[in-house]
Amino acid sequence: MDLDFTRAEQAFRAEVRDWLAGHVPRAPLPSMDTREGFEAHREWERRLAEERLSVVSWPVEYGGRGAGLIEWLIFEEEYWAAGAPGRVSQNGIFLLAPTLFSHGTAGQRERFLPGMARADEIWAQAWSEPEAGSDLAALTSRAERAEGGWLLHGQKTWSSRASYADWGFGLFRTDPASVRHRGLTYFMFPLAGVTVRPIAQLDGEHGFAELFFDGLYVPDDQVLGAPGEGWRIAMATTSSERGLTLRSPGRFLATADRLVRLARSTGADPVLADQVARAWLDAESYRLHTFGTARRLAAGEEIGSASSMGKVFWSELDVRMHTLALRLLGERGLLDGGAPDAEEGGRWLDGFLFSLAGPIYAGTNEIQRNIIAERVLGLPR
Amino acid sequence: MNSAFTDDQLALAAAVGQVLRAHCPAAAVRDGRTAAWPQLAGIGLFGLLVPAEHGGLGLGLVDAVLPFEEAGRAALPGPVAETVVAAPLLLAGDPVLDKLAAGSLRVSVRIGDQDYSPDADLADLLIVERGGVPYAVRPDAARLTLQPGVDRARRLFGVEFRDGTRLRAGAAPAARAMTVTVAAQLIGAARHLLDTTVGYARTRRQFGSPIGSFQAVKHQLAEVAIAVDFAAPLVYAAAFAVDRDLPTVDRDVSAAKAAAGEAAELAARTALQVHGAIGYTGELDLGLWLARVWSLSAAYGGTALHRSRLREAILGAPVLRRWP
């Protein structure tokens, strides 16, 4: 065991840190859940892509640097420490792309990955349905066979980024006689042919939307993996969503550092101070744990259901940190638009509202605890 | 950066685990306090941190964490950690290390935040800190007072002594190493408690179903799994910090002890709850691990002490540092 970074890793960190110091927008971008903010974030993604920093772990041919997972984690630490904007492309690059790399055809990778890396095409995920939620196998949207492709019918909901995104991905039932996780197929589709109804969130903005499909035609080459194999393929995606990629330690480390600075500047009573110290340390624990996960993935192991442990840990840590920040700020926390030192240069209040979604999305934490109990510990269903 | 343990580190831990499964069953913890000592000596455990010129392996604390996780898993009794980890650091350069490396010298140690000397009645040599200075004391020059305590296989003694040899090594490095070693044992004990309790919940039936199929039970055990899984990396990182004497070492040691102690206490509390009344009896071996967790959780500073140090280190330090 050697927890020192290699020279190459240190050099990469220095390069990323220097570039970000010179390029991160001084004023926070408008929220990506507004039309204006969405496009501003797209421009920032393009700027990152010019430097091959939008997808550092991808192969060079698709716009990346072929960096290893440890370098990716270093990039993330520097990215969030620099106060850089949230990643509007994250559904595509962190959720869909790993699936394209492992299950897509060469043609699909060439068609979709470079545009994703440059943010020319920003992706929305369309997992949930009104009656499904965390019970993904209960979905009822269907696709029927057509000449050279499929016709999509049904409704998706809570579709993150869908209000303004260009493309979506999701599961549809292709075998009408199938039940639960059998007979599902993984589709990629342009949102231009879909009726999108933005849904206002707790913060009043439109980060997610409902999608209505009324016979949208999707050619065969927009099916990811074999028809009927959608569940297995989607599971690979959701475990990366819960696990390594969606919520990297870098983001929590940055939040934890800001929280400590906030506690120092506002003064904290011993009880809150203890909780702040603990949160800082939990972020550190998540970081060390993730280095271990990255090492196992790099060695060819699959983390599978163990990713559920990380999901519960980081989502609850995030809520704890933001709750603490609001407590330290007192009444100001719920009022003030410019709380000092908040995440992404924005407001702690925004971060708090966003953190509350963590234990709900990507499979609620109740579901995650069932997964841990059944698939990691081996308890009976 | 490579957070993986080396093949050698894993092999040593596996060897210790194998020895303990064969020679330190629960019955041996119940009835004796020096189980598996000769067998552990046979695989070289006592020479782990002893330099080669004294017949040891000259390794570091990172090499010791997994073997001591195994010790915790087995609720291994006796002053093994004190002899393997603390004594070589405190007795650096002393010819007695030859004997220690061979497994023929038992040492009980009371330094740092440890209030009493564990297993002092079994020791061939006592090392006791007084006024910040560690002294080596022969058992016949000391008066031991047994303290009533929860763990009958880890007895605690007050030690009074008249004549002792002032040791040149400071107590602080050994105390850090011991604190991490205790944390590693707590992780091992927690893993054992989780495994045992999962096994029980799979087979014990109530209301016509295995109790492990009830969500209320599942979620408690999932919480234990998460706590243990996220505490362990802090312990490994603290061992690395001790070996490298990093600037963050004191904070890292406190982090390891606090997190491992809390995870193990949660594992113990949950194990007892899920086992129900049978877990409360002395008929089950479960109590051996519960007692060990409570005993080690309080050893070398309890959670509250280490949490308050962490608060000071994180909120009071001029600069926040992470390693690497």
UniProtKB/TrEMBL annotation, chain A:
Family that this chain belongs to: Belongs to the acyl-CoA dehydrogenase family.
Keywords, comma-separated and alphabetical: FAD, Flavoprotein, Oxidoreductase
Pfam families for the chain: Acyl-CoA_dh_1, Acyl-CoA_dh_M, Acyl-CoA_dh_N
Name used for this protein in its record: Alkylation response protein AidB-like acyl-CoA dehydrogenase
Residue span, Acyl-CoA dehydrogenase/oxidase C-terminal domain: 228-377
Highest rank taxon of the organism: Bacteria
InterPro entries named in the record: Acyl-CoA_Oxase/DH_mid-dom, Acyl-CoA_Oxase/DH_mid-dom_sf, AcylCo_DH-like_C, AcylCo_DH/oxidase_C, AcylCoA_DH/ox_N, AcylCoA_DH/ox_N_sf, AcylCoA_DH/oxidase_NM_dom_sf, Mycobact_Acyl-CoA_DH
Annotated Acyl-CoA dehydrogenase/oxidase N-terminal domain residues: 7-119
Record lineage: Bacteria, Bacillati, Actinomycetota, Actinomycetes, Streptosporangiales
From TrEMBL, chain B:
Keyword Oxidoreductase: yes
Pfam family, one: Acyl-CoA_dh_N
Domain Acyl-CoA dehydrogenase/oxidase N-terminal: 6-94
Acyl-CoA dehydrogenase/oxidase C-terminal domain span: 180-314
UniProt cross-references to SUPFAM superfamilies, sorted A to Z: Acyl-CoA dehydrogenase C-terminal domain-like (SSF47203), Acyl-CoA dehydrogenase NM domain-like (SSF56645)
Needed cofactors: FAD
Sorted UniProt keywords: FAD, Flavoprotein, Oxidoreductase
Family note: Belongs to the acyl-CoA dehydrogenase family.
PANTHER family associated with the record: ACYL-COA DEHYDROGENASE, ACYL-COA DEHYDROGENASE FADE28
UniProt-recorded name of the protein: Alkylation response protein AidB-like acyl-CoA dehydrogenase
Organism for this UniProt entry: Streptosporangium brasiliense
Lineage: Bacteria, Bacillati, Actinomycetota, Actinomycetes, Streptosporangiales
